[in-house]
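This is your field. Pick holes in the following sequence-structure pair:
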Amino acid sequence: MRINPDNKKIRYSGRIDWRNPKEPIWVYPCTSAEFKFTGKYLKIFLKNKNEYWQNYLGCILDGVQLCYYLDNKKENEIEIRVPENENGEHHVLFFKRQDSCHEMHILGFEIEDGAKLLELPDAQTRKIEVYGDSVSAGEVTEAVDYTGKTDPEHQGGYSNSWYSYAWMTARMLNAQIHDIAQGGIALMDGQGWFHEPDQIGMESAWNKIRFNKTFGELTEWDFNQYTPQVVVVAIGQNDNHPFDYMSEDYMCEKAILWREHYTEFLKKLRQVYPKASVVCCTTLLEHDSSWDKAIDDVVVSMGDSKISHCIFKRNGAATPGHLRIPETYEMARELADYIENLGIEEWK
């Protein structure tokens, strides 16, 4: 029995392009579809649009995590069959493991004839949103043999948003998440690694669903669709490329300009989320501490009691490579504790 993507018993999470309700588009990591069903088998149908890396679909069926390779050469419908189940009730979560290195167009699902979808329990009322880069997206998290080391050669298969500190933090807090994360992104256009030499910065991406021009027209996000009580801003890691001006001269023109732009970015977030607690941070990935000083100076200068700066125990010093699962857990545990200690009124 074919099930349309817009079936009301399917719960979606993430910034999704719903302009065509029969073909919602997934852009960001941690974007997901969740439902309960009966019967022995399950299929998902989708189209994958690839720009780089190899791409994979994440799936958790009855607590067991699975991973499916998406053939980049196919422009038509991809059919994925999940392994046979026992008869009875089942729970599935399909999710996007990677960032905007690809887009997924969800075409529908299938369960056996006579089976049915079941009601899900109520969604969590706690909501967080994360703005970040590859670490927030969970890039290369599964390369656990390289914990504390530089990255291995890979084609995207080690990347898994489920193990990002962002999604781990949300689970620790029993919160929904929107993960506005993109590998290589910096704050400002023209800096960082994403789409070099014409880099797209978070300033251009933050209010979009599609921000990667490779896949077509850019699409705006409606901020009325999701209102987080906590917003995490984890930007400042890739901004030192192609030149680490903040560490070279903290008072140079480029460094001052970055702090001004970071201030304006926080003001834009405050405009769309007037009541949210905003937590600024970087990550455990190695970087010069001048970037954390810059963030701290901006936070102090703003004088907003609901904008704060979280510094981790091994901030900027834990690893020269991307965070692996043990390191993302370490960061998530500290961040979750930090957020809980904010005493957010709506969470009490």
Observations:
- The CA atoms of residues 122 and 289 lie 42 Å apart.
- The longest strand covers residues 102-111.
- The two ends are 43 Å apart (CA to CA).
- The chain is about 20% helix and 25% strand.
